[in-house]
Write a structure and sequence with these properties.
Helix content: under 10%
Number of strands: 23
Order of helices and strands: EEEEEEEEEEEEEEHEEEEEEEEE
Structural class: mainly beta
Radius of gyration: 25 Å
Largest sheet: 7 strands, parallel
Distance between the termini: 28 Å
Strand content: 25-35%
Shape: elongated
Oligomer: single chain
Number of helices: 1
């Protein structure tokens, strides 16, 4: 856990981090600046967001929710809605909509009844406007109540997220600290054993960086796909920047490993062709992608990676040190 403390200018003890909305302490608060930029086409407005994801995707019914106002009256939630879904990215069902809500004093808590409750594993609060009319929000507490009045956010196994979180940083709601003197010290410290050599077949991809790498890489992938099931052959792309002018496809159920020599001045595949994508995994896929950069092309609407039918039985996709970007996530 790497905390990102950001003291409020009016009170040095007031933090603005995500867990503050769930700590049962109205003196702390969470702030989401939202986005209200007419020039940010095609999405000029992003609402402030608080999202709760249940543990183990268990579906829960929320019949009411509460909000506690923060320290700035101009940032009080005015127009907002609660949505439910059974996947973190939706599709979403609108459960309740509120407009022109007022907050007479600081740390006021209000309860809102869900008009059409249902069983959902994800709940999302979107604040589209505060008292000042912008999507920025300042919330001291947020709670989701079931039919018995229990607050679902008290389950410390759950995941809470917000909009535009920094990549690689997360929060643990239940923190345990062990005193140094109570930490056992081993009598002998040794290095881990050398990993077992699995004798995987390694197929080296030899490409002139100035040439179109599509045909060479596709041929090596096809050769690896012909290896026996469970052998997990390695298709190795050495360090360098390579251009693909056609989509490269990994066949369904091929358990090959597509491995480069690292991201950031390592192995980078760039798309220079037509419709794309750069790399397609046909489902159900059992591929492993590691130490690679896949650059589609956001300017011409090409995806770096498309995984088809990822939910089919028998499919497992493993990645490690993979950096991909393009038109959009799929």
């Amino acid at each position: 856990v790497r905390p990102r403390a950001n003291p409020h200018p009016a009170a040095a003890t007031l933090q603005q981090e995500l867990p503050n909305a769930f700590d049962n302490d109205p003196s702390t608060e969470f702030v989401d600046a939202g986005c209200n930029d007419p020039n940010n086409a095609p999405h000029p407005v992003y609402p402030g967001v608080l999202q709760w994801n249940s543990a183990d995707d268990a579906r829960k019914m929320v019949v009411a929710y509460t909000l506690t106002a923060g320290s700035d009256a101009t940032k009080d939630p005015r127009d907002f809605r609660l949505l439910g879904a059974n996947a973190p990215g939706g599709p979403w069902t609108v459960l309740d909509t509120q407009t022109r809500v007022t907050w007479p004093t600081r740390a006021t808590t209000k309860t809102f009844t869900v008009k059409a409750p249902g069983d959902y594993s994800v709940y999302r609060l979107e604040i589209t406007a505060n008292t000042a009319g912008t999507p920025s929000m300042r919330v001291a507490e947020f709670a989701l109540l079931d039919a018995k009045g229990a607050d679902l956010t008290e389950d410390r196994r759950c995941l809470v997220t917000t909009r535009n979180e920094a990549w690689g940083i997360f929060y643990a709601l239940d923190k345990q600290v062990t005193m140094l003197e109570k930490t056992p010290v081993p009598t002998m410290v040794g290095l881990p054993a050398t990993p077992k050599n699995r004798h995987r077949k390694i197929i080296e991809v030899r490409i002139n960086p100035k040439d179109d790498a599509s045909a060479v890489l596709q041929a090596q992938i096809n050769a690896a796909a012909q290896e026996s099931a469970g052998s997990k052959p390695v298709v190795h792309i050495p360090k360098g920047k390579y251009t693909l002018n056609r989509t490269v496809t990994v066949p369904a159920l091929s358990d090959l490993q597509l491995i480069g020599d690292g991201v950031g001045n390592g192995t980078a595949l760039n798309y220079g062709g037509g419709d794309g994508p750069l790399l397609r995994l046909v489902g159900p896929s059992r591929a492993t992608l590691r130490d690679l950069e896949l650059f589609g092309g956001s300017a011409n609407g090409v995806d770096g990676l498309v995984i088809e039918h990822a939910d089919q039985d028998g499919g497992h996709i493993y990645t490690n040190q993979l950096w991909t970007r393009g038109a959009a996530a799929r």
